[in-house]
Amino acid sequence: MQRASPDNIRTLRLFSGLSEQEKDNLIQAGRTRRYANRQYLFVYGDQVRLFHIVCDGAVQLFRETPDGHEMTSDIIAAGDTIGGAEILQSQATHRFNAIAVKDTAAIEFPIAWLKENSKRYSILALNLLTMLSRRGNTAMIEAEHKATMTAPQQIACFLERLCILHDYDPHGFDLPYSKTLIASRLGMEIETFSRGLAKLHEHGITIRGARVFFDDIEKMENYACSNCSISDTCQEHELLRGQLSRPKPGRVGCA
Amino acid sequence: MQRASPDNIRTLRLFSGLSEQEKDNLIQAGRTRRYANRQYLFVYGDQVRLFHIVCDGAVQLFRETPDGHEMTSDIIAAGDTIGGAEILQSQATHRFNAIAVKDTAAIEFPIAWLKENSKRYSILALNLLTMLSRRGNTAMIEAEHKATMTAPQQIACFLERLCILHDYDPHGFDLPYSKTLIASRLGMEIETFSRGLAKLHEHGITIRGARVFFDDIEKMENYACSNCSISDTCQEHELLRGQLSRPKPGRVGCA
DNA sequence: CGACACTTTGAAGACGATCAACGCCGGTGG
DNA sequence: CCACCGGCGTTGATCGTCTTCAAAGTGTCG
Predict the structure, then answer these.
(1) B172 CA to D6 C1', in Å?
(2) Which residue, of B81, B110, B138, is where some domain finishes?
(3) A190 CA from D20 C1′ (Å)
(4) Using CA atoms, how far apart are residues A203 and A197, in angstroms rounded to an integer?
(5) Identity of the residue in A129, A139, A255 whose CB atom sits nearest the CB atom of B88
(6) Which nucleotide lies nearest residue B209, CA to C1'?
(7) Contact indicator for B133, A84 with CB cutoff of 8 Å
(8) Whole-angstrom Cα distance, residue B43 to residue B97?
(9) pTM, whole model, 2 decimals?
(10) What angle do CA A138, A75, A3 make, to 5 degrees?
(11) Which partner from A215, B93, B205, B214 sits 20 to 30 angstroms from A228, CA to CA?
């Protein structure tokens, strides 16, 4: 998992391409803050005041429907940011709640900081643009999945991405979030998720408690989705990527 | 509908904030090209070579699943762009097909043009960023809809946005695309869409052929989704927006 | 040990996908 | 002018999947 303690904040994708001095200038305007598990960063309707960089832990972004249903828009892991889209669109208020789902550390910046510096440092704007458009891309692909794949397929695809993006050992790793949270993130009920996990055993994925085993990497291909833009996200994992999701020439869509 | 013939290309959101001379410099690198209805701009697997600005008509972006199913990712209307995300992420090949669904005119630019100029003109990068992140936002919200709303609700929400974004008369307008295309865009089968349209009559929306009537604007609120980021998209339509989707204080989620 | 959150499992129901048939319309060709 | 065709949309019936409701099981932490 990518971590960003004050030590390695300089390695964040958001700041890539900037000189060390530029990074210093930028970072010094931020303030590190810690959130306990289950503590809110902000809620629906709050004024947009801050841009956050999550350094450690994870933050759930979610909405509630009038009938009390909770809908997770995204889970922001360490190294990613919150609020960029809202600020650049000059949205006055937040359209979702943000709550820490682990003990979390985040650096916060005033919105003016982001607006000014994304004009001053075009590379910063580009980095943010890339991150946001990638997130949007993922959202589009997942919307597609929801329309074309069964629940077990979606789960398998999610687990595969999880394993690759977080650099977990495919032969055995623990889920980083509760099953309830993951189910919500995938837009399905916890019961469906639970049953889906059970079914994955027939397809070479075993789940015992929170532990996941890809016991047959070949069979993973049944679920591999060549459109999930895993490709350019962690360039150092070429090998694993080749093992897990081997896009076949001419193949489109999700199997 | 926003049109961008060579005359009004200067008014595009993408170029907003640039001087007339800067616009000239930028635009002169482009080449206008016309596509007949049903003509492909590119297909899945093609090299990413160009950045497109759709001036007139509309372009469907879609994938095909291995079992021959067609999945529409998006419909790009006049004034919007194609390829920005791919270029900024240095994707080598296209992950979807692009086909004109009307007679269409588009200006095309080499990818280097976009890369260089989004560094040179940070405002251009910001504009593109805003457009892309808005598109991603919409995708996320629609994914949410797919998980929380019934088919008729999704259709109503779509029609409402359509009416507002294209500046149609809510008391009667024609669908700009075929029902088949819209159904695909919403990720549902044409049969489901057709039945959904029929049901909307009980809720104050009448459809006769391709013509849509919001015969009871008050009832629209039953479907209005306060999270659909219509708000900052066409600033000139405050009044209509107030009529159609009136977000209530403290209200979250989709009704 | 007991409280509580989280997860699993079962059974019933709702919704959308699928399959099939039909109506409608515009175009083509005899 | 009519017959034929293909694309498009509607409607009906059936089926599979996911949600919902209900209950029991598991784990953790005081």
Answers:
(1) 30
(2) B138
(3) 12
(4) 10
(5) A129
(6) D9
(7) yes
(8) 4
(9) 0.84
(10) 100
(11) A215
